[in-house]
Design brief:
Layout (H helix, E strand, L loop, with lengths): L3 H6 L4 E2 L2 E2 L2 H14 L4 E4 L7 E5 L2 E6 L8 H19 L4 E6 L2 H33 L6 H11 L9 H14 L3 H13 L3 H17 L4 H16 L3 E13 L2 E12 L4
Helix pairs in contact: 2-3, 3-4, 4-6, 4-9, 5-7, 6-8, 8-9
Bound molecules: zinc ion.
Amino acid sequence: MPSEADKSNTCQTALLGVCLSKQPATLLKEVEQLCGAPVHARLGTEYNVGGADVSEQGPFIVINPYVLKETKTRQEAAIVHELLHLKLRAKGFGGVKYEPTETRFYNIAGPFLEEMVGLIHAPIEHYIIFPEMRGMGFDPGIEVKHYCSSVLEGKEKEPIDDDQRAVFFFRALLETNDQKLISKLMSFYESKHWNGPMALGKKLAQIVKDSNPRAPDDVANVYASCMNTLLERRARLEFKGWFYFKRGRFEVKVARMWIVPLIQL
Ligand SMILES: [Zn+2]
């Protein structure tokens, strides 16, 4: 039996010391070809869930340090997850940039709107990339499943308001296909009288499933659509096309989202 050290010596491709098996290694090569540069990987902070983007130095992924304490499969899954986000970036799926029509409104609502990029835009991308992860033998919903279970067991803080409750339910529906967990979550919501946010979460997930986004414009439009459903009478979001800019020799693309307040803050 080769020792762990011997095995790492024979490793062909590794990121952050994690040896990548065949399919993840092929994915890394594909992403590097699409980006035209090597992918850098670094550890984030414990508060950072991970990420993928392009800086002046080139494409990079960020992995939460706790991942390295997990099993080899979970470590590879986290790397593959971020590589697939990066692959979307390389294929023209951009991030989101709000273009507020009113500064005062944005000063107050900005942090909430920015948070929704992580809580709604990322899950829309997950809807596209998770089947690919499953095809490689990984369980992409494991993070959100653990998080839901922790909330149900009272180990993690409950979502604090109706927006957070709706979005939490939306993520659970979109990112896991664990019917048992969804049923438990439904009973939990009913016991809390969170029926409105639960219905809204279902509606948001259905918007994504019905539109089945496949292209960059689809993702931007479905994001605007989800946000308009969530914001309802508070503000209106409009996708106004793409904004391109340079980071070093790399071109970065973001969806311009006009945000028009419908209420006075
Ligand atoms: Zn993600």
